[in-house]
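Attaching the record inline, Q. Sequence:
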Amino acid sequence: MTRAPVHVVRIAIAATLLAGCTPGVGIQDSSPSVVAAPAISAAGTSPEASATAVPTASPPQPPAPEAPAPAPQPFVLNLYEEGDFVPQYTFDWCVAASIQMAYNLTRPNSSGTWAGREQQNELWDMARARSSNAFNGANPLGWAQVLNEVGVGPYEVVSIADYNEALRTAANALAATGRPVGLVMWSGRHAWVMSGFQSVGDPRIHPRFEVTGVNVLDPLYPYGSGQWGPSPAPNTLQSPDELARQFVVREPRRWSSALPTGYMLVLPVATGDGVR
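Structure, as predicted:
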């Protein structure tokens, strides 16, 4: 891009104590005399002294234990379909082409694919206008904002210090939202799209799943870079080691001074209302 952690449910049971009391025995209005005690019934109690048994609360039942998660198995998720790839029409428009591809991978309006040169130019202008301190280019903040405005979002920009954790974060977000992830490549000089991944364990079930491969879309294909290496063909599955050759740490710059040094992602965010 020349110009781019368990909800504990506590059940409180309140036991209600029931107190019983015997009614008082009345005194008749007569001359002083000894009042005979009431006859004792065969059961050994007076009618007035009989009491109702106090019901006993049932003891609380412990919650049923949760079934353990199944053992991690190979997991595959890929959004890519033929026709989703779009090349960048100039060497500067990688962000705009990546926005077109993200739209194609999600089809939020079911209105066909985005692939035109004129539209790519317009998206580039939009991203650049929303990219402060970007040296007249488009940075990841502009990239994310345009994705939000065209209906693909919400997206946010994050920077993660650890490489494997960055891959897990990207895969987890893709699985949770069904939307692609933007990869800030070449230490901030280029844009790729992560359209899928393979892992050991489903991120939605296994918190410590391991990413074993990443499907990528490089809008610069088939040209590549003499410094960073060739562009992979659309929907190529790269191993983490292969991806690490071009997906590298990005140092903070003026526009990103609030973000730590790390691997930068344009990350889809779950809306929290059941809508992806």
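Residues 74-268 form a domain with the Cathepsin B; Chain A fold (CATH 3.90.70). Residues 2-50 have pLDDT under 50 and may be disordered.

More tomorrow.
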